[in-house]
């Protein structure tokens, strides 16, 4: 099977002020906190042990800074499809605040008014997966929590709603691979430093 040896590394950006508070952050271009920068640097020794044929990064500052601090900035190509889910009217709001006016709301099922639907995000993720599978070597992707959770679901041929089952902290490393030719998860949400985390909105 052509892709059986390929691994796709998913790197969620480091901590920001809004990842701590649980506010939904898509197009708001926040920098990393000092703790976020420190944790991003801890990714570098692990990634230095790997060889990557393709490195893609979200154009948002928090992902680009994480990529730089992790040692792969010089090799990275910006990829618009790796931007975080567009939360539209829910930008900057917590799940608790959103559910106060939309009881039972679930991002991976309902999407966001004024933003993206699950189908739209799924289409973006599928394009990134196609780019990754078009190369034979390993791939590194620097992006965002909800986007990468969607990618895990789609890699496994699940619906976008399946992303709700994959919690993902900041500055963590996850690895997608194959099991007898079908998409599989080799490692998930591996924290390389104490104190990583968020509210997993």
Give structural attributes.
alpha/beta, Rossmann fold, 6 strands, 32% helix, 201 residues, single chain, 6-stranded mixed beta sheet, globular
Account of the 3D structure:
With 201 residues, the protein is of the alpha/beta class. The chain has one domain (8-116, 124-191): Phosphoglycerate mutase-like (Rossmann fold, 3-Layer(aba) Sandwich), CATH 3.40.50.1240. Helices cover 32% and strands 18% of the residues. The chain is built from eight helices and six strands, in the order βαααβαβαααβαββ. It has helices spanning 17-21, 34-41, 44-48, 61-69, 95-101, 107-110, 118-133, 145-155, and strands at residues 8-12, 52-57, 77-78, 138-143, 172-179, 182-191. The protein has a six-stranded mixed sheet. α4 links the parallel β2 and β3 (77-78). α2 (34-41) packs across α4 (61-69) and α7 (118-133) packs across α8. The chain is globular. The mean pLDDT is 94.
Q: List how many beta strands DSSP finds.
A: 6
Rg result: 16 Å
- Percentage of β-strand residues: 15-25%
User: Number of folding domains?
Assistant: 1
Q: What fraction, in percent, of the residue positions are helical?
A: 25-40%
Approximate shape: globular
How far the N terminus sits from the C terminus, by CA atoms, comes to 37 Å
Largest sheet report: 6 strands, mixed
Strand order across the biggest sheet? 3-2-4-1-5-6
Which spans have pLDDT < 50 for at least 5 consecutive residues? none
CATH topology: Rossmann fold
CATH class bucket: Alpha Beta
User: Any idea what the CATH superfamily is called?
Assistant: Phosphoglycerate mutase-like
Average pLDDT: 94
CATH architectural grouping: 3-Layer(aba) Sandwich
H/E element string? EHHHEHEHHHEHEE
